[in-house]
Amino acid sequence: MRDALRERALRLLARREYTRQELSHKITLFAESAEQLEALLDDLTNRHLLSDQRYAEARRNSRAPHLGDARLAYELRSKGVAAELVCATLAAGEDELTRARRVWQRRFGSLADVGDAAGQARQIRFLAGRGFSGETIRRLLSSSATLEDD
Asked: What b/e sequence results for 114-128 when a residue is b if at least 16 CB atoms lie within 10 Å of its CB, and e otherwise?
């Protein structure tokens, strides 16, 4: 039974990266005991087959082009990644303002008219929904306004 649990875990890890918490949830029903499960997870971690850091980096690389730091941090924490690792992973990536500018440019291309409060609010809501901070949104829209004035 122990080999079957290991095989199941390795099959899952062959498809994509998992956090320790995620993998534990996936295979807990197939473990004979909590000790057996913990021993397997420890062994996979020691052999560098299971890594929260690698998961966090992969997640950041795939999701960061579309999302802000707050949303990425939430997703990583909900998968069981430690807070220190979340901070380190986000700090190692591209800055949030650059990503926000790229997302905003792809979606809107230009600022809403000064008198169009609904259009401005729509752009702000869109960026906030993607997890960009209020400060980043403010800096993006104010810098875009100065660029359009030139």
From this structure: eeeeeeeeebbeebb
